[in-house]
Amino acid sequence: WAKAEGRGRWAVFDPERSARDIARSALVAGLPAALDRGEFVVHYQPIVSLLDGQMLAVEALVRWQHPELGLIGPARFIGLAEETGIIVRLGEWVLRQACRDAEAWRREFPGTRLVVSVNLAARQADDAGIVDTVADALVTTGLPADLLQLELTESAVMGSAGEPLRSLHRLAALGVRLAIDDFGTGYSNLAYLRRLPIHCLKLAGPFVEGIRGDGPEVTVDHRDERIVDALVRLAHALELWVTAEAVETPVQAERLRALRCDTGQGRFFGAPGPAGEIVARLRDSGAAA
Ligand code: C2E
Ligand code: MG
Ligand code: MG
Ligand code: MG
């Protein structure tokens, strides 16, 4: 038994829960050494045009190739990496790796203009050195700035002081694209949004999930569909691109196209995979020309 924050309330000690917490802490304690040992890998997921299916961008998604536990997804360590601050170092490694890979694709397939989209944690975006880090990653790898997109959540955009981040304007001035990730699930301040140097909104998965076509008949949550409709109109009124996340079925892809969504990402268009899968896809599409 453990006493919960005064007021005479008691919480039941849950052995399973604490075992999980211990496992999580052990995992996160190993992060810095794992980074030094090179145990992280970046996978990439296609972001395709809903008009013609062409792959226009890829999102960089980090995984941990753990020597005993196998491939671990970011859901299990990103949150803790943010809390401990190690995300700043891990995120910088992902950024550099993603720029390196994107530059290699650009050299191998000069006809393409594949954008690489990298997630920026709030902690990283808030870090004073972020602009220099991004500028240095571009210079060292040779990747043109307009082929890099940075994804920030609504709360990251607002910064820790509750003010829109000044560094966003400096990042935009470098020529990189900025996207709001999981748009519609966070704290959206539309008055700020219209003043921010943003290029793209990524519509959060739950809205797309409301458009279902996995059974024998199509069931549509009309409220979700109307929200998507409204958000796409809002984005286009602000001259922003819209990417729908978590597109899993052809019905969703078709509905999103009808709603004038620009691009889509999700299992329907391709799961995240190693860089080699992106190369194979570029080769198949005859992108070498
Ligand atoms: P996110 O940025 O919103 O990334 C999209 C997530 O949706 C990815 O999960 C992706 O694998 C997953 N996804 C792909 N296709 C589908 C689909 O068809 N349906 C559904 N329901 N989901 C799909 P993942 O790779 O596990 O990443 C989870 C989150 O971890 C990311 O969400 C992002 O917030 C964070 N993350 C990943 N890599 C990094 C990184 O390098 N830095 C930071 N700061 N965060 C990262
Ligand atoms: Mg995952
Ligand atoms: Mg993202
Ligand atoms: Mg997202």
UniProtKB/TrEMBL annotation:
Query: Where does the record place the EAL domain?
Result: 24-286
The entry's protein name is: Diguanylate cyclase/phosphodiesterase with PAS/PAC sensor(S)
The organism encoding this protein is: Micromonospora nigra
Q: Which residues of the full protein are shown?
A: 423 to 711 of 711
